[in-house]
Specification:
The complex is a heterodimer.
Chain A: E1 6-8, E2 11-13, E3 17-20, H1 27-37, E4 41-48, H2 58-64, E5 68-71, H3 79-93, E6 97-100, H4 113-125, E7 129-134, H5 138-146, E8 151-154, H6 168-177, E9 183-185, H7 191-199, E10 204-207, H8 209-212, H9 217-237
Parallel strand pairs in A: 3-4, 3-10, 4-5, 6-7, 7-8, 9-10
Antiparallel strand pairs in A: 1-2
Chain B: E1 12-17, E2 20-25, H1 30-36, E3 44-48, E4 51-53, E5 68-76
Parallel strand pairs in B: 1-5
Antiparallel strand pairs in B: 1-2, 3-4, 3-5
The chains are: A alpha/beta, B mainly beta.
């Protein structure tokens, strides 16, 4: 069995890792992590331009690496801010795909659902493919799907915490309720967290901090990419049911009478 | 580009570019502003008074006194 391509809006990816570039020490670190993991899609923020001097800009570097670029609306607290940021991203990158983030405050960085759903609905009406970063509430995931987003991106834990998938049951339930792509976003700490997300039925995983701030980002990028593939296969392989008592794997047939 | 502290007159206008005051010649377009600032024109977007200005409109968008211009590009982000 091979990993099937995944469609996210107008993007198609063959590798199920989406690399968040936030937190990387340098552009080189990002390039090494892209190469090591095989990711085909990276996220970026939209910020004021600074003269780059003689160095290569992030834009030029990513274009040179032939990866697809997914802009986000990081740092937006209101639907209004997120909508104009998405429009600016569309203008800068000539893409209709946007990772929509509307957060409630700087301390938790948790999504603000009321503003989020308003922004999602408006952006969909403006022709965007919206990949919506959200809490792990299965019902709200279904609400997002109903307003026309292209993917639901539940958090495993708050951004940057590395706490893993705190509520696997919610992710599994969301998988049952949401029929569009489900991408675990935020909270990944290490490879096993990504494998779990995929085993729960997620279609892809977005990892930023866990890779960019690891001691060896490229090695962690590779590890998480492998874990995602492992989790993808495990989900489809059909795991054995959990049991209370042991079940011998070796038959008693032919056992000696000693 | 001249001293931004200098008062606007009939030949020049003061605008805010990414939060910083800049004095430019009256009649300068948004497209020309990017040239003056030596900024790239691909991978960037511009907003004027919090409204996105599409790339094709840059040459005919004339900057006037007090305009707030935001010029943005991509940056590292999750």
């Amino acid at each position: 069995m091979q990993v099937e391509p995944l469609k996210l809006g107008s993007y198609v990816i063959n590798n199920r890792l989406i690399l968040g570039t936030g937190g990387a020490m340098s552009h080189e670190t990002i390039a090494e992590s892209i190469a090591a993991s095989g990711t085909e899609l990276v996220t970026v923020a939209i910020r004021r331009i600074k003269p780059t001097g003689s160095g290569q800009s992030l834009y030029d570097m990513l274009r040179g690496l032939k990866v697809q670029i997914l802009p986000n609306t990081a740092g937006c607290f209101t639907a209004k801010e997120a909508i104009i940021t998405a429009e600016l991203a569309r203008e800068a990158l000539e893409t209709n795909v946007v990772k929509l983030e509307v957060i409630a405050d700087d301390k938790t960085l948790l999504p603000q659902p009321l503003e989020l759903i308003d922004a999602a609905e408006e952006l969909v009406s403006r022709g965007f493919f919206v990949l919506a970063y959200t809490n792990d509430d299965p019902i709200f995931g279904r609400n997002l799907q109903s307003v026309g987003v292209s993917a639901v991106m539940p958090l495993g834990a708050p951004i940057g915490t590395g706490l893993g998938v705190r509520n696997p049951h919610n992710i599994a339930l969301m998988r049952e309720l949401v029929t569009i792509p489900l991408v675990l976003d935020a909270g990944i700490g290490t490879a096993s967290d990504a494998a779990l997300a995929m085993e729960l039925g997620c279609d892809a995983v977005l990892a930023a901090t866990s890779i960019t701030r690891a001691d060896s980002p490229a090695v962690m990028a590779r590890a998480i990419s492998l874990a995602i593939e492992a989790g993808y296969l495990a989900h489809r392989a059909g795991r054995v049911p959990k049991r209370h008592l042991a079940l011998a794997s070796t038959s008693d047939e032919g056992r000696a009478d000693l | 580009m001249e001293n931004p502290a200098k008062k606007a007159d009939s030949e020049n206008v003061t605008i805010l570019v990414n939060g910083e005051a800049k004095l430019v010649r009256a009649g300068t377009s948004l497209d020309e502003l990017l040239d003056i600032l030596n900024l790239p024109k691909v991978g960037v977007a511009a907003a004027l008074d919090a409204e996105v200005v599409h790339r094709r409109m840059w040459p005919e968008t004339i900057l006037t006194e007090g305009h707030k211009v935001e010029i943005l590009t991509i940056a590292q982000g999750g």
